[in-house]
Amino acid sequence: MKIHRHRGRVGLLAAAAALSLVLTACGNGDTDGNQDDGDVSGELTMLTPIYEGTEGNRLLEEEILPAFYEEYPEVTVSVDYQTYGTLNEKLTTAVAGGLIPDVMMMGVGWVEAFAANGVLAELDSLGVTAESLAGDYTPQIVAGGTVDGSLYALPIMLDTRFGCARMDLLAEAGYEQPPASWEELRDYAVALTERDGSGTLQRAGFDMLSMDLRQMYEVFLFSAGGSLFNEGATEPTFNSAEGVAALEFITGLMNQDQVEDIGFSNTDADVHPLLNGRAAMAVCHNNLWIQLQEAAPELADQIQPFLINGTQPGMFFGGTLATVSASSENQQAALALAQFLAGPEPSLAANEQRGNVPALTELLDSGYVQGNPLVQFAMENLDVAQREGGPPQWLEIRGDFSPAIESALLEQKTPQQALDDLAEAARAAMGR
Amino acid sequence: MTATAPAIRARPAPTAAQARRRRLLVRVGLHLLLALGAVTMIVPFVWMLLTSVKSPAELASFPPTFWPDEWVWSNYSGAMQAAPFATYFRNSLIIATGHTLITLLFGSLAGYALARIPFRGRELLFLGFIAMLMIPTYTKIVPQFLIVRFMPLSGGNDLFGQGGSGWLNTWWALLIPGGLSPFAIFLFRQFYLSLPRELEEAARIDGLGELRIWAQIYTPLIKPAVATVALLTFQESWNNFLWPLLVTTRDELRVIQVGLAVFQQQENTAWHHLMAGTTLATVPMVLLFLLAQRYFIQGFTQAGIK
After folding, report:
1. Tens digits of per-residue pLDDT, B282-292?
2. Average pLDDT value for residue range A366-373
3. Which end of chain B is more exposed for a tag (fewer CB within 10 A), N or C?
């Protein structure tokens, strides 16, 4: 069944390629026609942390690239598969060695650093602008590929984080809907927390530890109306009153309300605690649906996503974007490949393979999105989603986040102290 | 008045039976302690084996089960299909074997020279090797990468290392930079130092040159060192992940650890496949240890490594 669907996808990809070519040609009619496939040629190298494993390789090399080659027969692509865990090292050594791949996939929040170092091509000069993407993506997603008003990256897929609830457990406690505010979240979490006679936690009312602490905190920061940095990304703002309130709420849940104990779960847990009933609610990733289908398909109707509402709805998004090397000798071909991969059918296929959220707004109606409640929820709420990143030093700064959040959770520092110290470290990094 | 000193009563010597009982108690206690240590060591390994045959649904259950309810052997075939493991396995084997052979040959030669051949600057050179032990691996990665990238007259590079890609994407990059470690040289030197000088003198009287003394007299006497260095080198090389990933771009040159990384995505780990793949990846190391364990233990004991 699956094989048939994939075979069918080849045709769709070819059609998409044709459409992509037509759209590109139309869109760039006034930019000396540099996207005419007659001019697009060369041997390209591509670095990617997605399309991994046999299934991902097969998707890229047997479906997506052949469809690309149909439209650009003078282009060949050799692919370097990486993981996100090693991508930074690979990019760093590639830059140091002067062998920068023509097309590079990287995460939201990474673009600023590599753009600042002159590694990435400004796509505006190649005929693709942030304005031209405005109709296809939400403004926040376009902003993830934009630095100082210039476009450097095309979005392919998103990773989102939001609240998830086990509705069967909520129903047992008399709740029919997920919490609609921080206050309700606290009340629900307290009511849903279960301990045995000796006080050992049996079920967390609200799990915060299965998610990377930085990303978990950012969901609350955004829902408190806070931001990581100011408008020009020149000054950290996560230690503002909103940021402190968010961290105080989290530490309150953990230490005063005791809806979860330190060490109860972690990011490497065998299975998400929502799936085995060890938690009633949690901050979760859209990828939870993939785990659910494998481990607990009977819960498909019981997991319900919700936005965490403070002063505003909070949702976090990261993701993978395609960029073009500033030093590429075949920039038009590289741009054509990046655009093709970010196009509807190839990006939909890539998202489906990883269980991620398509960045293109039009894909909300696709069968994949409609069949995955968490992805669908994420896409329907992308207008409130906010991203991380800002200054070029973000990759350095972000590593300090989790220890700072941890120090507040462990009550080694007050939330204000933890965030002030973190802001100081961020300022030092930004000043270097 | 006479004071009588208290009589010093000799402790009665333990009977043979008491001594035997005490020895037995000590031995039982020791064995219990060692058994506890052994169980502590082996539980993670057993857990890995058992996890590798559990279904995702069983892995999700809480409390976790120790014995699988159902033995899902298809996890192994599933894991093997998730990445080109045959290629990765072959590459890991070539690289680990290559590193081991290079280390044994050149490491023992260098260790022998530092231990047994007096030459000017020998101590300084040895201190240099010791200093190299202190340098963290991560700090060496970029300089090593640049050396490989700008290797003259390779991969299209000219004499000055420009114009091509050097050793990148070649077996040279995989085999040469990690081929010899200062630790191996240090270990060999210590072993060669422990051998009696008389052997060397007798060999010289018999007319043997340095190479033959190294090959025929001294090296056969340090088999434990050879086994120890071989196993440690093979293991380190087998587990290497980052370097092969940095210097290659093609799947045909990638290693087994890269295959295992496929099961760990950012937000989702396929534990059943990861444990099946890891079990398969440990097989060569376990076999190697079983074959060489006698020498390996001797080597560790003599070198005082813990």
Report:
1. 998 888 888 87
2. 96
3. N
Helix (H) or strand (E) holding A404: helix A401-409
Q: Contact B267/A277, CB-based, under 8 Å? A: no
pLDDT tens-digit map of B28-43: 999 999 999 999 999 9
Q: Which fold is adopted by the domain A161-317+390-431?
A: D-Maltodextrin-Binding Protein; domain 2 (3.40.190)
Contact: A295, B269; criterion CB under 8 Å: no
Best B265, B271, B273 member to test A by mutation, with max A CBs in 10 Å, is B265
What's phi and psi for B302, nearest 5 deg? -70, -35
How close A393 gets to chain B, by Cα (Å)?
20
**Token pair 């502590």: residue:** B40
CB of B296 closer than 8 Å to CB of B235: no
End-to-end CA distance of chain B: 65
Instruction: Evaluate whether A345 touches A15 at the Cβ level (below 8 Å).
Output: yes
The pair of three-digit structure tokens given for residue B86, joined into one six-digit string: 């045959």
Structural domains present in chain B: 83-303 (1.10.3720.10)
- Cβ(B200)–Cβ(B213) below 8 Å: yes
Does B265 sit within 8 Å of A295, measured CB to CB? no
Report the alpha-carbon distance of residue B94 to residue B4 in Å, rounded. Answer: 85
Measured between beta carbons, the chain B residues lying within 8 angstroms of A47 are 249
Q: H-helix or E-strand containing B289?
A: helix B271-303
Q: Which residue of B has its CA nearest to A277?
A: B62
Q: Residue A97: its chain B contacts at CB < 8 A?
A: 145-146, 149-150, 168
- Please tell me the distance from the alpha carbon of residue B305 to that of residue A191, in angstroms, as a whole number: 54
Closest alpha carbon within chain A to B167 = A97
Q: Which one, of A336, A311, A310, lies nearest residue A322 by Cα? A: A336
The reply to whether B4 touches chain A by the CB within 8 Å rule is no
Would the CB atoms of B268 and A275 count as touching at under 8 Å?
no
**CATH ID of A2-159+318-387, from 2.60.40.10, 3.40.190.10, 3.30.930.10, 3.40.980.10:** 3.40.190.10
For A274, the 3-state DSSP assignment is coil
Interface of A with B (CB under 8 A): 45, 47, 52-55, 57, 78-86, 89-90, 92-93, 96-99, 159, 268, 270-271, 275-278, 285, 287-288, 290-291, 294-296, 354-355
**All structural domains of chain A with their residue ranges:** 2-159+318-387, 161-317+390-431
Nearest chain A residue to B147 by CA: give it.
A97
SS (H, E, C) B2-45: CCCCCCCCCCCCCCHHHHHHHHHHHHHHHHHHHHHHHHHHHHHH
Pairing of strands A194-195, A201-203: antiparallel
What the block records as the tokens of A97 is: 């060695």
Strands A313-324 and A42-48: unpaired
Size of interface A-B (CB pairs under 8 A): 92
Enter the pTM of the model: 0.82
Separation between Cα atoms, residue B288 and residue B236, nearest integer Å: 13
Which residues on B lie below 8 Å from A278 (Cβ)?
62
> Would you mind telling me the total number of residues written for chain A in this entry?
432
Share of chain A above pLDDT 90, in %: 81
Cα(A178)–Cα(B159) distance, integer angstroms: 68
pLDDT of A211-260, one tens digit each?
A: 999 999 999 999 999 999 998 899 999 999 999 999 999 999 999 999 99
- B246 CA to centre of own chain: 22
What whole-number distance in Å separates Cα of residue A133 and Cα of residue A145? 11
The ipTM (two decimal places) reads 0.76
Evaluated on CA atoms A324, A326, A328, A330, the torsion sign reads positive
CA–CA separation, A380 and A225 (whole Å):
20
B128 SS3 class = helix
